[in-house]
Write a structure and sequence with these properties.
421 residues; mainly alpha; Proton glutamate symport protein
């Protein structure tokens, strides 16, 4: 008897991933660090497989996409729309965080003496100025940038290479190069599809380790902070971004949510929008219906510079620290916090817990950078940051996908999110 796997719910990837998350949480809760140590390496192996394909996939997709766009004016138009969308949603996200933290005021009267864990801050190299960021975008050695997984220089080089291909006068070399990169992109998509079949196993291992090592004891003294960040993230995910989809592209949010469920689950499990990028690109093309021309330009840039969830977190976290210390911020200073959070979120790396390091930039902007209690409070926040990081990564990925869908509609692609695929 033939079985149509597409119609059986237990064959669908998102149900397998949800089951793996629940089973991993239960395993970590029951067996603790023993299970985390025994199974955690499987999650590391899966993350390595995902990261292995990021650089070649981004290069192939951007070069083939830009080469198919045409001249420099088309590229400039697409770049303007992409950055305009990312700045808009990041500003809305930071503003949401500002409103929520002022309404709930989670840091007022909070005592975090028992919550400060012996954690070490992740190391992260953040550009100190706009000029430094601009210089970092231009690679001195493309191969070393690729080896280091430094995405901005790779994206910059790939855009220039794709644009240069379009300037070739002779049809033969131009067609040969476009055909090569198109074929290379298809190979990378096929490789991505094979790796994604291992997703439930990788998710099970990652969630087991997260619950087994973190537990739930650290949440008690920081529960109001946790709920405040969660509220801001939820409003942005289920209110702000759907409104943006409706207003800018007349896309039904429910359809887009359903089409994007697999990347959202992967982003939540891995806490890395960069590691999720291969799945996001495949899903946005196959299920959302965005062309490679648009998705290959918008999504790699979004995974690098568009961090809506991080923008919410930066605002809530910085103002929470100010409230705990008893530092009363004026409206003007809070506006500075919003703008700094917007810019800091753009500079945040697409890796786990990067936002918690970048928060020091916001603290400096509002005058709390050198306060003796500030770092201790950040360390307390780090103790429960993993689940929040998982949630805000999912929002980052969803915002990227919304941007791709909106820009595709603006470019005349009518089949975007026309149905649940």
């Amino acid at each position: 008897m033939d079985i149509n796997q597409d119609r059986l719910w237990y064959f669908k990837l998102h149900w397998q991933v949800l089951g793996a998350m629940l089973l991993g949480a239960l395993t970590g809760l029951i067996f603790g660090e023993g299970a985390a140590n025994a199974i955690g390496w499987i999650g590391d192996l899966f993350m390595r497989l995902l990261r292995m394909i990021i650089v070649p996939l981004v290069i192939a997709s951007i070069v083939s996409g830009v080469a198919s766009i045409g001249g420099g004016r088309a590229i400039g138009r697409l770049f303007g729309k992409t950055m305009g969308y990312y700045l808009l949603t990041s500003f809305l996200a930071a503003s949401t965080g500002l409103i929520v933290v002022n309404l709930i005021r989670p840091g007022v009267g909070a005592s975090l003496g028992d919550a400060v864990a012996a954690e070490e801050m992740p190391e992260l190299d953040i550009p100190s100025s706009g000029v430094e960021l601009l210089l970092d975008i231009v690679p001195t050695n493309v191969l070393s940038s690729a080896a280091a997984g430094d995405m901005l220089p790779i994206i910059f080089f790939s855009i220039l290479l794709g644009a240069a291909i379009t300037t070739l006068k002779a049809d033969a070399p131009r067609g040969t190069l476009i055909g090569f990169f198109n074929a290379f992109f298809q190979v990378m998509v096929a490789l991505t599809s094979g790796i994604i079949k291992l997703l439930p196993i990788g998710v099970f291992a990652l969630i087991t380790r997260m619950v087994g090592t973190t537990g739930f004891e650290a949440f008690a003294p920081l529960i109001r902070y946790f709920l405040t960040v969660g509220t801001g993230l939820t409003i942005h995910l289920f209110v702000t971004l759907p409104i943006v989809l409706i207003v800018l592209a007349r896309i039904t949010p429910a359809i887009h949510f359903k089409n994007m469920r697999n990347p959202l689950l992967i982003a939540f499990s891995t806490s890395s929008s960069a590691a999720t990028l291969p799945v996001t690109m495949r899903t946005v093309q196959e299920r959302v219906g965005v062309s490679n021309k648009v998705s290959s330009f918008v999504l790699p840039m979004g995974a690098t510079v568009n961090m809506d969830g991080t923008a919410v977190f930066e605002c809530v976290g910085a103002l929470f620290i100010a409230q705990v210390i008893g530092f009363d911020l004026s409206l003007g200073t809070q506006v500075v916090a919003v703008m700094t959070a917007l810019l800091a979120s753009i500079g945040a790396a697409a890796v786990p817990s990067a936002g918690l390091v970048v928060i020091f930039i916001v603290l400096d902007a509002i005058g709390l950078g050198g306060h003796p209690q500030a770092e201790a409070i950040v360390l307390a926040m780090l103790a429960i940051d993993r689940p929040l990081d998982m949630y805000r990564t999912a929002i980052n990925v969803f915002s990227d996908s919304c941007g791709a869908a909106i820009i595709a509609r603006s470019e005349g692609e009518e089949g975007v999110d026309a149905e649940v695929r």
